[in-house]
Amino acid sequence: MGIIAADVFLTLDGVYQAPGGPEEDPSGGFPFGGWQGAYWSDEGGELVGADLARLDALLLGRRTYDIFAAYWPHHDDEIGTKFNSVPKFVVSRTLGEPEWAGTTVVRDPAAELAEVKARFEEMHVIGSGELTRALLAADLLDRLHLYVYPIVLGRGRRLFDGVVPAAFRLTEPAQTLPKGAVSLVYERAGEPVTGIDLGELDG
Length: 203
Fold this sequence. Notes:
- The chain is an alpha/beta fold.
- The chain has five helices and nine strands.
- The chain has helices spanning 42-54, 62-71, 78-85, 109-117, 129-137; strands spanning 3-11, 57-61, 88-91, 103-106, 122-126, 143-149, 168-170, 175-176, 182-188.
- Strands 1, 2, 3, 4, 5, 6, 7, 8 and 9 form a nine-stranded mixed sheet that branches.
- It is globular.
């Protein structure tokens, strides 16, 4: 049985919108595109490369898919070669015939993805915050890899807005990167435990 893993670049205040460039996703008047670059490092690139090396399928939301489909077919570097060669799945109710080679449209993720992910070792979600939230709600997300950057933007799309309550366990040691970003890898750990009065705890 394969897994679905989400790899997300995130600010301290939870924004995932447009990390890669000024024009990546200016929707909603977002003025801060390209916020990741100032914190990029070779070590961070190696971690991202390791994520990419493991994936054997891509799962994307419609907005991220449109950004990727407009860019990656025209680039044959290491990332482009990987993305162009693996099977791609896009969750959309409105997309017709996709133009990016190797793409399958998923209309009903709750009904379809359990069977789809069984075909692959690691199906990765990149960006796609709305899809990540939907996968969490449906208990279909197996691993969450957050790259958290030391920056607060105060606006933009946030990963955890409106998500269902969920607990996680850290499955790998946290890694601090040279310019202050932190790599955190989590797996689902059931429902969150709440209602504890710290004053009643021993010690």
